[in-house]
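This section describes the prediction task in plain terms. A model, or a person checking by hand, is given the sequence of a single protein chain and must write out its three-dimensional structure as a string of tokens. No templates, partner chains or ligands are provided. The sample shown here is typical of the held-out split.
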Amino acid sequence: MSRVNYPITIDQLITEAKKAKKLFGGDRYILISTDEEGNGFHECYFSFSAGEEMLDEFNAPYGLKPEECVTLG
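The expected answer:
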């Protein structure tokens, strides 16, 4: 079974961050969803890292390759 939903891209995140800054200002703290359903949230402490630095083929999300990803938080 192939994957049908995907996480947002860096470009989509930038677009949404610009919208959020206009709406809320730039001094709000960022919380990241614990899962894809938004059942919990945790703090964002780190910027972006290359996926292959933080993931391998065993802990990358299903259907995604580490080199196709970046990590945030």
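For orientation: Residues 5 and 63 are 10 Å apart (CA to CA).
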